[in-house]
Design goal:
Layout (H helix, E strand, L loop, with lengths): L11 E7 L8 E7 L4 E4 L8 H11 L7 E5 L5 H4 L2 H8 L5 E4 L8 H5 L5 H10 L3 H15 L8 E4 L4 E4 L2 E7 L8 E5 L4 E5 L26 H12 L6 E4 L8 H24 L9 H4 L8 H17 L3 E5 L5 E4 L1
Parallel strand pairs: 3-4, 4-5, 5-6, 10-11
Antiparallel strand pairs: 1-2, 2-3, 7-8, 8-9, 9-10, 12-13
Helix pairs in contact: 8-10
């Protein structure tokens, strides 16, 4: 057992797929809600053996894949929708898939058919001063991730406040952008459970990821960390017994973990500022001063995190862009 078992809740079955090789995430969690027919929240990635793991969990719960009435995807990252194609194929018929409108493009064939390394991605790498050897590693990692899912073209868009009702459950969509522009949480009001996707995770602080393809955004001024902090505030005051996240263990103290996240980002912002005070530099050159250690697979995440904190520092008047480059140079004020 990689994590502590989820609480036993009426009309909720929790499935925690182990993620070998991804120790920072521990598990990929999906949740089966309601009496037959059921709603599935997320599906996990298309890893070898992951679908068999899900089948076994369904059988243990006395359910079949064909009992699924709909699939709700918390956001458009491959570890949350990778098994959709296999599930629909096994069910023998089309299962409606729902995702927030802002992330719908991420799971589509169009996104998969676009040039694997977009012009926007190349421009971003030049802007942050990413070395060529790191760019090649990142390109290979992006290519690997695309193998963990199949595209979905028949998804229906969700919006903030939408409600999904079924036998034994009442879900309300809470739009919580930050980790991605279309990230959602789902609040089940009868049992007071928050299904938090990657917005709230117990053992790590979720990454508010930089958006490289700006042309896809509703708001051209979107900033992921600013949006993430606003989304955290949106959850304050919500009556929650349990938070069931997309990775790792369940959570019982939502206000406490929100406070931890806020403090983490305040400290990280100060650390970026302190690093920048040494001299004006491009983003990539700040990594060693901001982080004690960055695995080679996480260089993009490190640069992304520095940038989103720099955006906040600029908003607060504590830093500025002195040369748009490429590479772009920033300085502390």
């Amino acid at each position: 057992m990689l994590i502590k078992p989820f609480p036993e809740i009426n009309n909720v079955h929790s499935i925690a797929i182990p993620l070998p090789g991804f120790s920072d995430l521990i598990t990929s969690n999906l949740f089966v809600i309601g009496n037959v027919p059921v709603t599935l929240i997320d599906t996990g990635p298309k890893f070898p053996g992951s679908f068999e793991f899900v089948l076994k969990a369904f059988k243990h719960a006395g359910l079949k894949i064909s009992d699924i009435e709909r699939i709700i995807i918390t956001h458009g990252h491959v570890d949350h929708f990778g098994l959709v194609g296999k599930i629909i194929e096994t069910a023998g018929g089309l299962i409606p898939c729902l995702i927030h409108a802002e992330d719908k493009w991420r799971i589509s064939s169009e996104a998969f058919q676009e040039e694997e390394w977009s012009e926007e991605a190349g421009n971003f790498m030049a802007m942050v001063h990413m070395p060529q050897k790191e760019i090649e590693k990142i390109r290979n990692r992006f290519s690997f991730f695309n193998q963990l899912c199949d595209p979905i073209d028949e998804a229906s868009p969700l919006e903030d406040g939408d409600e999904i009702l079924g036998a034994g459950y009442h879900l309300r969509v809470i739009h919580t952008p930050g980790h991605s522009p279309g990230t959602i949480c789902l609040y089940e009001s009868q049992e007071k459970i928050l299904f938090s996707g990657d917005h709230i995770i117990k053992h790590i602080t979720p990454n508010p990821l930089v958006e490289v393809r700006r042309n896809r955004l509703r708001d051209p001024d979107y900033q992921s960390l600013k949006a993430y902090m606003q989304s955290l505030h949106k959850l304050k005051g919500l009556d929650v017994r349990f938070v069931f996240p997309g990775h790792g263990e369940f959570i019982t103290d939502l206000p406490g973990i929100i406070s931890t996240y806020v403090e983490h980002h305040r400290q990280r912002m100060d650390r970026v500022w302190d690093a920048l005070k040494k001299k004006p530099r491009p983003l990539y050159d700040l990594i060693d001063d901001v982080f004690n250690h960055v695995p080679e697979t996480d260089v993009f995440l490190a640069v992304s995190e520095i940038l989103v904190h720099l955006e906040m520092l600029i908003n607060e008047g504590r830093a500025s862009l002195v040369d748009p480059g490429p590479p772009a140079f920033y300085e502390a004020l």
